[in-house]
């Protein structure tokens, strides 16, 4: 479960990238050093606020380093022309790219078809040419970017739950351009709030796979979100109502 405990920020480059969302945050410089050796790194920035930003950085090179994982293709979702669309980035992509990315799955794919995947609630994407042979891709979000089980990583504990929530959400968007636009324009924190509220309701109703020990952690996550982004839970509750996924039309109370 996401605890959002900031922990100490490493001043020296660790031996390996963070393995879970709960690992200590990293500075951009430390993450960049790791990425040069490992091809990508998912991390949290040092806590300027209660819940620090979540980042995913990957470097696409003309030739593989053969050191760890060499991503050559990145896929993600973006809202274009009134609909969610799967977008791709490779070394031939025009750069710089700057703009929002949408909720859903992010995939890093190497030349052999191996994948490391993530799931997010949306945020900002930038790309930068690095030297003569590499493209730096950075996803950054105010809400968690969570690992899914992949070629060289274990999944974060909430990753599959977020995917399941999106799976329940997608059919609600079929046939409604207005609703699809509403969800696409929602802030990452509002979508995160909607997920937390929905999952708490499923836990209360005995429908969630989470253990009873996860309940206090879920409450802490909701309380932290309320401190970091006042109104995110109310906005999330309104999104659930619009989607028809709310358990009952009652006001959302902060934990």
Description:
The chain has 2 domains: 28-147, no CATH class; 159-243, no CATH class. Helix 4 (188-204) packs antiparallel against helix 5 (214-228). It has 255 residues and is α+β, with helices and mostly antiparallel strands. Helices cover 31% and strands 25% of the residues.
**Estimated helix fraction:** 25-40%
Main sheet properties: 5 strands, antiparallel
Total helical elements: 6
Overall body shape: globular
SSE arrangement, N to C: HEEEEEEEEEEHHHHH
Q: Could you say how many structural domains there are in total? A: 2
Question: Outline of this structure?
Answer:
The chain has helices spanning 28-38, 159-173, 177-185, 188-204, 214-228, 232-243; strands spanning 40-44, 54-61, 71-80, 83-89, 98-101, 104-110, 115-120, 123-130, 134-141, 146-147. The chain is of the alpha+beta class and 255 residues long.
Topology of helices and strands:
Layout: H1 28-38, E1 40-44, E2 54-61, E3 71-80, E4 83-89, E5 98-101, E6 104-110, E7 115-120, E8 123-130, E9 134-141, E10 146-147, H2 159-173, H3 177-185, H4 188-204, H5 214-228, H6 232-243
List keywords for this structure.
255 residues; disordered N terminus; disordered C terminus; 5-stranded antiparallel sheet; alpha+beta
């Amino acid at each position: 479960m996401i605890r959002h405990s900031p922990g100490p920020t490493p001043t020296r480059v660790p031996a390996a990238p963070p393995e879970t969302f709960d690992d200590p945050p990293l500075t951009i410089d430390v993450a960049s050093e790791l990425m040069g050796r490992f091809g990508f790194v998912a991390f949290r920035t040092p806590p300027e606020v209660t819940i620090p930003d979540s980042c995913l950085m990957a470097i696409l090179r003309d030739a593989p380093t053969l050191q760890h994982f060499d991503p050559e293709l990145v896929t993600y979702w973006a809202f274009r022309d009134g609909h969610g669309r799967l977008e791709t980035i490779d070394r031939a992509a025009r750069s710089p790219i700057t703009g929002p990315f949408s909720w859903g799955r992010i995939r890093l794919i190497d030349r052999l078809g191996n994948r490391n995947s993530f799931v997010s609630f949306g945020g900002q994407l930038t790309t930068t040419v690095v030297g003569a042979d590499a493209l730096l891709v950075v996803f950054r979000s105010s809400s968690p970017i969570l690992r899914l089980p992949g070629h060289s990583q274990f999944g974060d504990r909430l990753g599959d739950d977020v995917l399941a929530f999106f799976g329940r959400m997608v059919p609600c968007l079929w046939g409604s351009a207005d609703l699809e636009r509403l969800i696409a324009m929602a802030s990452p924190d509002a979508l995160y709030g909607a997920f937390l509220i929905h999952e708490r309701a499923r836990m209360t109703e005995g429908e969630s796979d989470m253990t009873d020990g996860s309940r206090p952690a879920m409450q802490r996550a909701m309380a932290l979100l309320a401190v970091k982004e006042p109104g995110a839970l109310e906005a999330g509750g309104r999104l659930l109502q619009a989607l028809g996924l709310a358990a009952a039309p009652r006001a959302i109370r902060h934990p």
